Amino acid sequence: MNRTERLAAITLYLLARRRVTAAEIARAFEVSERTVYRDLQALAEGGLPLVAVPGAGGGYELPPAYRLTPLTLTPDEAVAVWVAVEALGGPDHPLREALRGAWLRIHAALPEELRRSIVDVGAAVDVSRMGPEVRVGQGVFAAVVRALRERRQLLIRYHVPATGETTQRVVDVYGLACVQGRWYAPAYCHLRAGLRSFRLDRIERAELLESGYPYPRDFDVRRWVQQTFAMADDAGERLAVRVRFSPRAARRAVDDRFFRGCVERLADGGMEARLSLPAPELPYCAELVLGYAGEAEAVEPPELRDLVAALAQRVASRHAGPPATDGGPARQPAASPC
């Protein structure tokens, strides 16, 4: 944004907060602190009643009377606006600055308690990989957002089409993320006693409970997206990958963190995973395919098939003769069952 736009945005930024430091403004607008000091001086000379508070805990603020009339929005409406702005406000989006300015105006006019709530929810929502969206029930989405905002447990009825399994679970919602058009909620599952990833379009019913839960402050939803979906933030070549699993390996494929969310059931009872991977991840994918002990096949691309074949040859050659560890006698093969 140019300087005029930045001065207007800084004014809104000050309106939305009780007191801020020059360092906070510099981080928010990605400029130097020296630039911030010049901008604040220009705003003060232009008539903005800016108050500088010295000392520890000091900063810059506006008089209490110099405030916008609070905007009447429900918490769900405010979160919905924030998610829409984030989804369309990527670094390459042509409306990024306009959206950012619009949100600053809305945010500045919200009551302080609602602003704090949105900040908490916003830190736990990631839409950086949002694609064509898969439909999610309105009541389900609203319940998950409210559970996250109010830190209340959620009772869900969860269905997995690949296995036909439907379960009722109590979960503690840790975040929300839209990945390749699908909404996911990382949550602690009390049925499985561990962190699980729930696709919102597979939640048939969601009921907010009165019981609360402690939110893990070290949980980072963006890091979770990276680890769960194994997507590298690079601009390198990406390849379309297809891996087919036998009926025997179908359940394992559904629970496999690498392929989870990308598998579809085949007519023979097996599964097929379709995903897009950066080229550097193909060797790791080949190791995973080989780990299925012949119950998985790399269908495409050819490079992946070649990597799996090469790994299989290395494993076969390593086990073709006696072990070369201590020079002892080779282990005799086990007798075949009758």
Automatic annotation (TrEMBL):
Residues 315-338 are annotated as: Disordered. Keywords: Transcription, Transcription regulation. Residues 3-58 form the HTH deoR-type domain. It comes from the Bacteria. The keyword Cytoplasm does not apply. It comes from Geochorda subterranea. The keyword DNA-binding does not apply. PROSITE patterns: HTH_DEOR_2, WYL. InterPro entries: CBASS_pafABC_assoc_protein, DeoR_HTH, HTH_11, PafC-like, WCX_dom, WH-like_DNA-bd_sf, WH_DNA-bd_sf, WYL_dom. Pfam families: HTH_11, WCX, WYL. This is YafY family protein.
